[in-house]
Amino acid sequence: MPAARPFVEFDRVALTYGEGEAATQALDETTLGIAEGEFVAVVGPSGCGKSSLLKLVSGLVRATSGNVVVAAQEVTAPIKIVGMAFQNPNLLPWRTTLRNVLLPAEIVQPHRARFRRDKAPYTERARHLLQTVGLGGFEGKLPWQLSGGMQQRASLCRALMHEPSLLLLDEPFGALDAFTREELWAVLQALWMQRRFTVILVTHDLREALFLADTIYVMSARPGRILLRKRFELPRPRTLASTYEPVFVEALAELRSHIAEARIPVPAPA
User: Fold this and answer.
1) 240 within some domain
2) Is residue 1 part of a domain?
3) What does the alpha-carbon distance between residue 194 and residue 182 come to, in Å, rounded to a whole number?
4) What's the pLDDT at 262?
5) Is there a domain that residue 267 lies in?
6) pLDDT of residue 257
7) I need a labelling partner for 73 at 20 to 30 A (CA). Which of 67, 145, 212, 260 fits?
8) C-alpha span between 119 and 117 (Å, rounded)
9) Under 8 Å between Cβ of 163 and 80
């Protein structure tokens, strides 16, 4: 049987911002394939184009050359099957936690039309998501009444509200303290194991990448290229104790060595 086509596919993708002397090439000859339901992390030096990769997947920007395909469709505009969470939770300050989580149901079709007819199923789903991440009882709180970690939990719930097939995470825990960050690793892992949506996580934290992902892509310095695709078969569910086990420590050391190599700029093809 032929291999299934990747759910997310980059075929020799290049991306340049600006024109002329002000142009900056973010990505060059980027090729990768991500299976449906796979949890992937993308790591590399600052400025290597990791966030640009997410923008291309979501359709927020278009490739300068090459093709980006998601769910067997070429990405030419923003797509609806994506949920996104960023380093800043970006909760609307005038909306309660529950109403922040409900926001995608109010604006993303076909949920928008259904939400207007019957809000009850969506409200029940939002409450269930909040309960799952430990925010039961905080539905009526405003963002300023929540800690940073609680706001990020709400942001994850909002990203999953419309049941996206693809979750894009851009340094979602980078602004949090170490204890809260590690706690949310377990929360995200549990959500993924329960629902098995496809995840692309951009992170600078190599422990985070190994804890959460099964496949890790290492990118070169700008212009970004994929230097390495590495599969790590670590048992799940993973715990903080797992990060001290020899197999995890060895994998982390290997990943660090690849990152060191990635800091050396790769000359453009002649």
Assistant:
1) yes
2) no
3) 19
4) 59
5) no
6) 84
7) 212
8) 7
9) no
Residue ranges, the chain, pLDDT below 50: none
CATH code (residue 235): 3.40.50.300
Structure tokens at 8: 């997310």
- Beta strands 8-17 and 65-70 are antiparallel
3-state secondary structure at position 130: helix
| Structural domain total, the chain | 1
82, 225 Cβ separation under 8 angstroms: no
3-class DSSP state of 173: coil
Q: 152-208, pLDDT tens digit by residue?
A: 999 999 999 999 999 999 999 988 889 999 999 999 999 999 999 999 999 999 999
pTM here? 0.92
Query: What DSSP state is assigned to residue 266?
Result: P
Per-residue model confidence (pLDDT) at position 269: 54
What pLDDT, on a 0 to 100 scale, did the predictor assign at position 267? 57
Query: Per the domain annotation, does 268 fall within a domain?
Result: no
* CA 120 to chain CA mean position, Å: 29
Q: Which domain holds residue 123?
A: 8-262
